[in-house]
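[09:14] KT: can someone run the structure on this one? pasting the chain below
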Amino acid sequence: MLFNIFGRNSCDSCNGGSSCGSCGSCGSCGSCGSCGSCGSCGSCGSCGSFGSGAGNACGTYEDLSCNAALSGSVSGVQCYGDCCILPCRTGCADLPPHVLHFTSGTGSGVQLTANAGASTNFVIVGAGGAVTKFEPFASSVTLTAAEQAAAFFLPNRVRIRCFTASMIISAPVTGSSVTLYAALLSAPYNSDTFGLVPGSTIVLASGLTSALPVGSILTASASLCTSVSGKLAVALFTSDVSSSTLTGYVQGSIFVK
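[09:31] RB: done, structure tokens below
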């Protein structure tokens, strides 16, 4: 057994003796633990509605305006995207231009005839050759497979912006007052019937007689904003109150977008 030689327990002051001393101050806090990993991202919100402005919405193709929206249902034009579909290409402004050149070639030239105020034949001019149709020109004509070989087959819908045609006279004119015309015809792929493209008929010259020198160049052009698809053909024809003949070489171009 151990005895306190000092006669009093060191803790006697706390056991019925005087009061204990105040507690010491708290120690400083330990450093914070590392943050936990981030939670998974929430699901994406629903797509917004399409815009309604002209040329912004993916709407149907409008054939009357160069600023119309082009639909994904139109051949050769697509919309893209895996959620909100992007707007389709719009109007004429962003489509690349193309020029369709036509010429009757370097052979004997084409010969156009007329009588009694109307044409008695007309020619279809293509990209390096021409075929003659021996009947009066009309706003609706039927072409055979061989005659359609001179037409342009369009890969998609285009808009005609300008049409220019010229003829170089290669033989003396016969007739009293010959008028020379050029026009565009179009038809669907599966049809042999070609109709006149509105606004495309141009007058290259009028009142022509035998006084016109050989080598004269007759030309005219027209500005259009007309949409076509399928097949496109260039026709030239004449009119005269009497029997007439006009012979020459044809060339020109069609500007499309």
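[09:33] KT: thanks! The CA atoms of residues 99 and 255 lie 5 Å apart.
[09:34] RB: yep, looked fine to me
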